[in-house]
Design a protein that fits this description.
The chain is α+β, with helices and mostly antiparallel strands. Helix content is about 30%, strand content about 25%. It is globular, with a radius of gyration of 22 Å.
């Protein structure tokens, strides 16, 4: 069986993590696509050994839920037999279209490979904590601005990279601009510094000063882009991007989609950022047919679908820790509000205060607790509550807050600024209205 690295708290294939609905394992496939037949095999394994739920994370990893300690070992053995390539060591994230994206400024794959080799030669993988990661963004059709990274490298041109540390594109601190070789050396130096802080060390703990003009950096930062839709490839074929509703789908539905992808002569399927899947190597007529199939099966096929802007965990009753049915609440919000949901608002619905589906802050977080549903503004699921409502009222409460935003938001305000200005008392009043 393949040897997998054990990275502490991360639920890797060899190190399942206990959750409220059993053990969870996470597969980080390499850039090579998974054959539809192999993905069908993985889904069948999830049905045999877990609860039959397959997830794709915000970073583009595949998760299998509802396992036991024993069944997780059986699933790992079957993944090995299926030949699914699983990444080990320090995560170094690139676009799933790296090297085949005709729009990328630079191919990030060579630099990512050089950094991966340098980490291995330096023996850093075992000295770094399980959450430490590197982003290498070639700035193609799928940008990685929303993904958190301890080191971020963003292409300026074919030879130069802008390096920053400790966050996503909006929050990372600038270090400077480097050629490819110097970027590799600088990245390794930063990772060494992180390792000296111990297994809990992160780039945010380092003292790093700006090495270039901050205003110019702000203008050139990589933004996020949706992987949903038709994406042209370098070989004149296309990729089709679809998303899982709230990052989750039952294995039976995914099997049906994989069979349709096989019928469409897909070269393979890749997990992608934004809880998405890319079907690779399609001819345009086949892509049109597959879009219709995906829509019928309940996948997200439009970048304007409100479900892609809502993070939600399984919640109750699927998870023993859940105090509200988080995905049911999220689905009700998406159905009721649709495209009227403020486009600047990021929404997180969490069954409990652990906040598994979205560890970072969101514009608005709805959390289940003993009192019902808690509303947290500009924070995480562990944040200070701004208002409460009954659990069964959470979706309708969100509708009332949306109406309040529409009435009160100033032309130069985003949703976060408006909610902060209105304050907890005004939000509580809105939630109390019938």
């Amino acid at each position: 069986m393949t040897s997998f690295s054990r990275r502490g708290a991360c639920p890797a294939l060899s190190a399942p993590m206990q959750t409220g609905d059993g053990h969870l394992v996470r597969l980080n496939p390499l850039a090579d696509e998974i054959a539809p037949k192999a993905l069908i095999g993985l889904c069948e394994s999830a049905q045999r050994h877990g609860n039959g739920i397959v997830e794709v994370t915000a970073r583009g990893s595949i998760q299998i839920r509802g396992l036991t300690a024993e069944s997780a070992c059986l699933l790992a053995a079957e993944v090995d037999v299926l030949g699914i390539p699983v990444r080990t060591g320090v995560p170094i994230d690139t676009s799933p279209l790296a090297s085949i994206d005709p729009e990328e400024i630079a191919n990030p794959a060579p630099l990512a490979a050089a950094i991966r080799l340098a980490i291995a030669e330096a023996g850093l993988a075992t000295r770094l904590g399980p959450k430490v990661s590197v982003i290498v963004d070639g700035c193609g059709q799928i940008k990685l601005g929303a993904i958190m990274g301890d080191v971020r490298l963003v292409a300026l041109n074919a030879e130069r990279w802008r390096l920053s540390v400790g966050g996503d594109a909006a929050s990372a601190r600038l270090v400077g601009e480097f050629g490819s070789d110097a970027a590799r050396v600088a990245t390794l130096g930063i990772l060494r510094s992180i390792s000296e802080l111990g297994r809990q060390g992160r780039a945010r703990d380092l003292r790093v000063g700006a090495g270039a003009d901050e205003s110019r950096f702000e203008q050139s930062r990589a933004t996020s882009s949706s992987p949903i839709g038709i994406l042209p490839l370098a070989d004149s074929r296309i990729a089709l991007g679809i998303a899982l509703p709230f990052g989750s789908i039952d294995a039976t539905t995914l099997i049906a989609f994989c069979r349709a992808a096989t019928d469409a002569d897909a070269a393979g399927i890749r997990a992608a950022p934004g809880r998405s899947l890319l079907v690779m190597g399609l001819a345009p007529p086949a892509a049109d047919t597959l879009i219709a199939t995906a829509k019928t099966l309940g996948f997200v096929t439009s970048p304007s679908d409100p479900r892609i802007r809502i993070a939600a965990c399984p919640g109750a009753p699927a998870c023993a820790s859940g105090m509200i049915a988080a995905r049911d609440v999220a689905a009700e919000i998406a159905a009721d509000l649709g495209e009227s949901l403020d486009p600047t608002l990021s929404l997180h619905v969490s069954g409990c205060a652990k906040g598994c589906a979205h560890p970072g802050p969101a514009t608005l977080t709805i959390v289940g607790d003993e009192k019902g549903a808690v509303f947290v503004v500009g924070g995480t699921a562990k944040g200070l509550p701004a208002a409460y409502t009954a659990g069964y009222e959470a979706a309708r409460g969100m509708g009332r807050l949306t109406k309040l935003l529409a009435q009160e938001r100033k032309p130069d305000e985003n949703a976060a600024a408006c909610l902060a200005r209105l304050g907890a008392k005004r939000l509580a009043q809105a939630l109390a209205q019938e």
